[in-house]
Amino acid sequence: MGTRYVYYFNKKYGRSGHLFQDRFWSEPVEDDAYFVTVIAYVLQNPIRAKACESPGQYRWSSLHSLSCSDSIIDRDALFSLISEPELYQLLELASDTDLYQPKSRGRKCRFEDEEAADMLCDLADTDSIAMFQKLNHDPQRSVVVELIARQVPIRQLARVSGLSKGLIEKWTAGLSKTQML
User: Fold this and answer.
1) Of 18, 31, 93, 164, which one has the greatest count of Cβ atoms within 10 A?
2) 2 in any annotated domain
3) Are residues 126 and 97 in the same domain?
4) Cα distance between residue 171 and residue 93, in whole Å
């Protein structure tokens, strides 16, 4: 049944591959500063998901393990990078500012998912992502190409549009680098 459904779903939505392919991705953590940023990001995720108002309120937060002596977290390694008071201060700052912008790590600026979704809906002249998904491939393709030209990453486009990464790559494969910039 699972195989049939995946075949049906992929055919219906112009996708390919596994049904949950490309949902998650990884990026190497190559320096200590970025590692600390990743820790703060992970601890702030329940707040972004509106599951709580502070990291300490989330039942499953690893923040609770920092006070346990039998924790699987290597406290010495963590606190050699950032002191405990600094970590809590960072978490406070994170709720007021967006310290996860790639530009703060020297990478090119990216868009928040909500901002990319708004641009997608504006360009498609739709009120929602669900309406965008009901459009034919030609208007979807033109919106995707325009957003790629505005430097919205393919993975982010796939995430916010509900289109497969493979389909977006197929649509943009013929574009030269200058057309994308």
Assistant:
1) 164
2) no
3) no
4) 40
Task: List pLDDT tens digits, range 104-119.
Answer: 433 445 688 899 999 9
DSSP, res 107: S
d(CA 81, CA 100) in angstroms, rounded, equals 18
Tokens of 178: 């200058």
Find tokens 């600026």 and name the residue: 109
pLDDT at residue 96 greater than cutoff 60 = no
Question: DSSP for 145-162?
Answer: HHHHHTT--HHHHHHHH-
Q: Tokens 């996860």, residue?
A: 100
Say yes or no to pLDDT of 50 above 60.
yes
Judge whether 173 lies within some domain.
Answer: yes
pLDDT at 73: 84
**Angle at 49 (CA atoms; ends 108, 97), nearest 5 degrees:** 45
In terms of residues, how long is the chain? 181
Angstrom CA distances, 128 to 47, 116, 118, 122, stand at 24, 12, 8, 9
**Could you tell me the residue range of the domain that residue 160 belongs to?**
110-180
**Residue 74 is encoded by which pair of tokens?**
């290597």
Amino acid, single-letter form, for residue 144: V
Q: What is the pLDDT of residue 125?
A: 94
Are residue 124 and residue 142 in the same domain, yes or no? yes
CA distance 125 to 139: 10
Run of H or E residues at 16? none
